[in-house]
Specification:
The chain contains 15 helices and no strands. The chain has helices at residues 3-32, 40-58, 61-84, 90-108, 134-138, 143-161, 163-173, 175-180, 185-211, 224-234, 239-262, 268-273, 275-289, 292-297, 302-310. The longest helix is centred in the first third of the chain and has 30 residues, at 3-32. The termini are far apart.
Length: 326
Amino acid sequence: MNEIDFTILFASVIAGAAPIVLAALGETITEKAGIINLSLDGSILISAMTAFAVSFETHSLVLGFLAAAAVGAIVAAIVAVFSVYLGQSQVAVGFVLTLTARDLAYFIGNPYSRLQGLQIHPMPISFLKNIPFFGKIFFTHNLPVYFSLILIFVCWWYIYRTPLGLNLRSVGENPRAAYARGINPQKLQIIYAVCGGLMIGLGGATFSLCTKPGWGRPQGAEGTGWIALALVIFGGWHPIKAATGAYFFSFLQVMGIYFQSWLPTVPAQVFQVAPFPLMIFTLLLIYISQKESVLNWAEDKDRIKSILAMFSGRIPTALGKPYQPE
């Protein structure tokens, strides 16, 4: 494979990962605040449908993205309100919502199935796209892809380098102590659940208006929400690690396309499905690398210890445990 092939490969990985990155970042922020949003998969689908339908009817991509973000925020807000104020199980509510949102997306979006709609076209950055090798990889995409790249570092900076990010982490770690400091844990959890839902909604819109333009059944985004959830968990609730996992999953998907041309005798369905078990296997290896017995074994092995540290992460203490002020 020559250099131009590599640039196409890596550019495709970055473009294909954009909706997964947005969804994983949204879920990372939500779970950092102590809320588990299991509606992710259904939320992505109904947001993708909403974005396509609204942009089709209004002839406006901007309205399509705004509508999808609003739908994602509403779904996340339902999970948060039922948990924070009504004391219901976040897992149960989220799981029911993901099934409901999925079926609603297919039912409401049926009239728009297989129609030719709007889509966002690439917007190369003129003064950066000519940089050797990296220019074509990073600076020849559309706005949602650029936004997903920038958002990775914005989320990291916000969570770990700002006072507001400290409040976010404190609510997810010890809401009782945060309440004693004058912070309203319930209010912050609602706010960050909605913010995470907005990003998830934008991820859905990116699917139907950029990555896989159009709407139908299947749309192509099915199962992505569960992958994003797994990336958050095994990425140690860290935005950069979760995004790195999203790019790795996209790499597996793109390589499947290459393997179809290299091995034409193998059924195409094998390569379409392969990224999912490979991703699960990789996540399993990451999980094993975080076990205490493995960490103890690597204690006196500096190189292995530094590699394992890259995959380390700690679950927010109050995750899934709604706080009720006395």
